[in-house]
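Whether sequence alone determines local backbone shape is best considered at the level of individual chains. The sequence in question and its structure tokens are set out directly beneath this paragraph.

***
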Amino acid sequence: MSRSGLTPEQNERLRDLLHEVLRKPENTQKIIAIELGMTQSGLSSFLSGRAGTTYPTVEKLAKLLKMQEWEVLGKAPPDLADLPGRELAAALARQAGIGEAAIAQVMAEPLTAATERWPALWWADRMRMVHLELLAKTGEPRAKKKSAP
């Protein structure tokens, strides 16, 4: 028997968020279940309160809603000051709209004794640069700068 890993309050919060999503006519239980990696009957069981869910569902719902996991769970935001430089940079980069591919690429770079002490802003700028390089490769338009009047 699998355990949900979430508190009853967190499961209820997820149900409320999913009910909001399902109020849109284009969203059906089948479509949302696929997005969340579950069956329609599994989603129905969760929505009715007969079952709980797991943290991977929280992650998928957060991505679907363009929210952070802590927001989905109704928790306070993490204290960013407690994060090491590169992890803090990743959190800041996400808030700034840097793509996950760029963040993942920089996070996968090996750390050395020197680089692990580099400040978060250096890492955030590196993530921004990788993001711009990826945009240039894919040909996606970048935001135009406003010209001065």
Observations:
- Residues 62 and 68 are 6 Å apart (CA to CA).
- The domain at 8-73 is CATH 1.10.260.40 (434 Repressor (Amino-terminal Domain)).
